[in-house]
Design a protein that fits this description.
Residues 26-86 form the TRAM domain. Catalyzes the formation of 5-methyl-uridine at position 1939 (m5U1939) in 23S rRNA. Residues 1-10 have a biased composition (Basic residues). Keywords: 4Fe-4S, Iron, Iron-sulfur, Metal-binding, Methyltransferase, rRNA processing, S-adenosyl-L-methionine, Transferase. There is one protein chain. This protein is α/β, with parallel strands linked by helices. It folds into three domains: 1-93, OB fold (Dihydrolipoamide Acetyltransferase, E2P) (Beta Barrel); 154-220 and 223-265, OB fold (Dihydrolipoamide Acetyltransferase, E2P), CATH 2.40.50; 273-473, Vaccinia Virus protein VP39 (Rossmann fold). It is built from eleven helices and 24 strands. The strands form four sheets. Strands 8-23-24-22-21-18-19-20 form an eight-stranded mixed β-sheet, sandwiched between helices. Strand 9 (154-161) and strand 10 (167-172) form a beta hairpin. Helix 8 (379-389) packs across helix 9.
Length: 479
């Protein structure tokens, strides 16, 4: 499997792909090649072939072992990008895509690959990224996987009005800002999928659809929520949205205004909640529009359960520092297991909700969670937190850019155990190299299939620092 062809803008640079920073000029093309044999699958799900002169070709929609004729749609100095024009020999792992929008919508790029093969590919991707940093796992990563369909509980859909006044609602086309109209989506949970066609009809009936930027959909324990990005207030359209919410029995809010938009509820403000597993039963997390929430509830539960198992036993009073804690996805279950958790998040509103979640889940005996706000991209701040808390366990659950500043500090101030949850294997591998070179070793690894039918890789690594880990297992430290 090759790691070339990394092409998602916005990710941190990595010396793995060789494409960031100094990218050669390219020309668009429609050149048809001779039949190619697909020899592997790139990290982003494209087939990998090589032409006679040795140049690599990344082929969308092609699978290892297949023979295809392709059309090159982009040439670069080091590789070409192509799509399948004719499938000559099919892979036994090729399946009929479940979605009617395959090939148009840019969302689910691995639908043509059997589910078990998708998951093996994601495990291999994590191992390959780590291998590029000289890190070898002792065993294949564990697989955390749930349902293959109807799993996604949140989504963001674009809204656009074309030159003829036609209103479009859907996801972006592959490699394009063009919207693909979506009236049904096989990966959305049923409550959200059922809203797509009615929302499309409603948008077409608005007097000012151009004032709608996008829609956010969320399914919670209290029912479905639609959040409208409303660029400018329009009273008649607000009334239409309210009538729609009453007819459908959903919650409705707006982010109102172009600059610094304010949240405006068009229905009574609900106490939105979702559930996560704890050691003695489920816990509830209060959430609000704009909060980070894992899209796949089933897989998120598996990740939390795995974290509890890897970190067990957490003796009473064990000190845990949870960085990038959100509203308590890992903090609350760890506290319920007996740990004393200092949970740190960058957004003040989420810190307040985290503290409230800790109080609400332990009436009469508040969970030991100290919620803090801090800039976790600042090494000095991370160092001060480590000095103050003296944690025996650190949890990192950063955004896509990873936690490089925190890992640099943790390399200098090692802790017995460090759990790293990642949504980008490239930045995880970069940060893991810092930790391994500082003396940590990887005790457990897992890949979570958070976004089925996509090349997205979510993963978990548990690091231990030799000596310090044995000391922590000997009992709780209160010093």
């Amino acid at each position: 499997m090759t790691m070339l062809g990394k092409r998602r803008p916005g990710r941190a640079s990595s010396d793995v792909s060789g494409l960031h920073g100094r990218q050669a000029e390219h020309r668009e093309a429609s050149e048809e090649q001779d039949a190619l044999e697909i020899r592997g699958l790139a990290h982003d799900g494209r087939g990998v072939a090589r032409i006679a002169r040795g140049k690599t070709v990344f082929v969308e929609g092609a699978l290892p072992g297949e023979h295809v004729r392709v059309a090159v749609h982009r040439t670069r100095k080091r590789f070409d990008e192509a799509h399948v024009r004719e499938l000559l020999v099919a892979s036994p792992e090729r399946v009929a895509p479940p979605c009617a929008h395959v090939g148009q919508c840019g969302g689910c790029d691995l639908q043509h690959l059997a589910l078990a093969a998708q998951r093996r590919h994601k495990q291999a991707v994590l191992e390959a990224w780590l291998g590029r940093q000289g890190i070898t796992l002792e065993a294949a990563p564990e697989l955390l996987a749930g349902s293959g369909e109807s799993y996604r509980r949140r989504a963001r859909l674009g809204v656009k009005v074309d030159a003829e006044g036609g209103v479009h609602l859907g996801f972006r086309a592959r490699h394009s800002h063009r919207l693909v109209d979506i009236d049904a989506c096989t990966v959305l949970v049923p409550a959200l999928d059922a809203l797509l066609a009615p929302l499309h009809r409603l948008l077409a009936e608005l007097e000012a659809p151009r004032q709608v930027g996008h829609l956010e959909l969320l399914d919670s324990d209290q029912g479905a929520l639609v959040v409208v990005r409303q660029l400018r207030d329009h009273a008649a359209d607000a009334w239409r949205w309210q009538a729609f919410s009453r007819a459908r029995g959903i919650h409705l809010a707006r982010w109102l205004g172009r600059e610094a938009p304010k949240l405006d509820w068009l229905t009574p403000t609900p106490a939105l909640r979702c559930r996560v597993p704890g050691p003695d039963g489920e816990l509830t997390l209060g959430i609000a529009p704009g909060d980070f929430l894992q899209a796949n509830a089933e897989v998120n539960s598996l990740m939390v359960t795995t974290a509890l198992a890897w970190l067990a036993p957490l003796a009473r009073g064990r000190r845990v520092l949870d960085l990038f804690a959100g509203v308590g996805n890992f903090s609350l279950p760890l506290a319920a297991a007996g740990a004393r958790v200092t949970a740190v998040e960058g957004r003040a509103a989420m810190v307040a909700r985290l503290a409230d979640n800790a109080r609400r889940n332990a009436p009469g005996r508040e969970l030991s969670v100290a919620a803090r706000q801090a800039d976790l991209n600042d090494e000095a701040t991370v160092g001060e937190l480590l000095q103050e808390v003296g944690p025996e366990v650190v949890v990192l659950d950063p955004p896509r850019q990873g936690a490089e500043p925190a890992c640099r500090v943790l390399g200098q101030r090692p802790v017995p155990r460090l759990l790293y949850i990642s949504c980008d294997p490239a930045t995880l591998a970069r940060d893991a190299a810092l930790l391994v070179h500082a003396g940590y070793r990887i005790r457990h690894a897992a890949v979570a299939d958070m976004f089925v039918h996509t090349s997205h890789v979510e993963s978990m690594l548990l690091f231990e620092y030799p000596g310090a880990a044995r000391q922590a297992q000997g009992g709780s430290s209160d010093g």
